[in-house]
Amino acid sequence: MKKGTEAEGLMSASTLARKDRAALLKKSSELSLLFGSLAHPVRLRVLCSLSEGEKTVTELTAFCEISQPAMSQFLGRMREEGIVRSRKEGTRVFYAIADSQVGRLLAAVRAIYC
Predict the structure, then answer these.
(1) Residue 66 sits in the same domain as residue 105
(2) 65 and 21, same structural domain?
(3) Which residues have a Cβ under 8 Å from the Cβ of 84 and sit 6 or more positions away?
(4) What is the distance between the alpha carbons of residues 45 and 53, in angstroms, rounded to a whole number?
(5) How would you class 62 by CB atoms within 10 Å of its CB: exposed for 0-12, middle for 13-18, buried for 19 or more?
(6) pLDDT band with cut points at 50, 70 and 90 for residue 77
(7) Which among 61, 73, 86, 107 is most buried, taking Cβ atoms within 10 Å?
(8) What residues pair up with 94 in beta bridges, in sequence order?
């Protein structure tokens, strides 16, 4: 009877491993896009700045030391990828991290490397 219990335990572990693998395969494309965004120094700086809270385009441009048109291109791409979100208040546009998971990932990066 003990062998049956062990076999059932192994089967449960095997089923769990398949579910974990399926979840990873499903998320791999999404993670690839996110890591692609993190792979560029300017996009990484933008996200690090936004991890401290919402910022205007002007603040992000100054922080990253790039031109406003270049910043607009970076932010447009990141918005299309769903990494950042924007809101307009008068003439100013504010950006924030769109996904709390991205914020958590950046917190881990900061804890390890900063």
Answers:
(1) yes
(2) no
(3) 46, 47, 50, 75, 78, 95, 96, 97, 98
(4) 13
(5) middle
(6) very high
(7) 61
(8) 56, 87
* Total-model pTM: 0.74
1 & 52 share domain = no
Tell me whether residue 110 is exposed, middle or buried, using C-beta atoms within 10 angstroms of its C-beta: 0 to 12, 13 to 18, 19 or more.
exposed
Specify whether 10 is located in the same domain as 60.
Answer: no
41 CB-contact burial (10 Å; exposed 0-12 / middle 13-18 / buried 19+): exposed
Average pLDDT over residues 73-82: 94
| Token representation of residue 17 | 């491993």
Q: Note the pLDDT tens digit of each residue in 10-60.
A: 446 566 677 788 887 878 888 887 888 789 999 999 999 999 999 999 999
Q: Residue 93: in which H helix or E strand, if any?
A: strand 92-97
Cα–Cα distance measured from residue 36 to residue 69, given in angstroms and rounded to the nearest whole number: 21
* Contacts of residue 99, Cβ cutoff 8 Å, sequence gap at least 6: 82, 83
